């Protein structure tokens, strides 16, 4: 089959809940083989992530993250995703990096929230006001219809600009107050110092941590981890790689056994909330296996549209 070039126009073909179902199906297949390379230069990062899943094929995603780029009028993140046949290794598709990342990252968090958050969650707090925060507003808006949204950002003007683009969305200026009244807190910041405090949490909340992707990055403090039941999308791509989990593990704040489950445990029923008063915490690590599953979903939607 001819290699397909899939760009941003595929966005209109996709659905957040359908993607979540595709991720569940992907985790019913044999466990992915994953190879990650991380290169650092000061605040800049190059991530090259690859995954091979029997039945889905191979994906290679390379991302460059330059936090200073917005000050130069450039995107902070760049890269590309290549998809290869499981049958013979031939290239099948080259997908727009931003498209795959958007759907993989927010879809990952939404799937976890569908499994871990209380179904009656009505107030969703988004921390951050960048591209990921915008995608979270889209994903959670579809996953929790009828919910009201609150956005907090260190720069209030950016939060206000994002809130204006969506109905039922307000801006918070007091972080502690906003966390205390939220049913779901989803965080996508670039901080290296944990700012979400466990003393602010209340029974029944779900905490979704996305921003940390380097060994020196954390969003939630030790108390938050101690108070919550902890879940990750993949032990293989969070433990040993991301400070959110590894720093408290190294310091003895938590034990590996405190990480209850990852997405490969969904079928067993372990990846679930036990009661209405439980605090659940999910670390979105976003490994290459999720890029592969997401890319396959996007390609299937693309091909289905082309055949209609």
CATH fold-level name of the largest domain: Rossmann fold
In helices, the fraction of residues equals: 25-40%
Order of helices and strands: EHEEEEEHEHEHEHEEHEHHEEH
**Distance between the ends:** 17 Å
Using the CA coordinates, give the radius of gyration.
19 Å
Output the strand order for the largest sheet. 9-8-7-10-11-14-12-13
Tally of separate helices: 9
Strand content: 25-35%
Class of the largest domain in CATH? Answer: Alpha Beta
Q: What low-confidence regions span 5 or more consecutive residues with pLDDT below 50? A: none
CATH architecture of the largest domain: 3-Layer(aba) Sandwich
Basic shape:
globular
What structural class is derived from the secondary structure elements? alpha/beta
What is the CATH homology-level superfamily of the largest domain? NAD(P)-binding Rossmann-like Domain
User: How many domain regions?
Assistant: 2
Write down how many β-strands occur, each being a DSSP E stretch of 2 or more residues: 14
Please summarize the sheet with the most strands: 8 strands, parallel
Mean pLDDT: 95
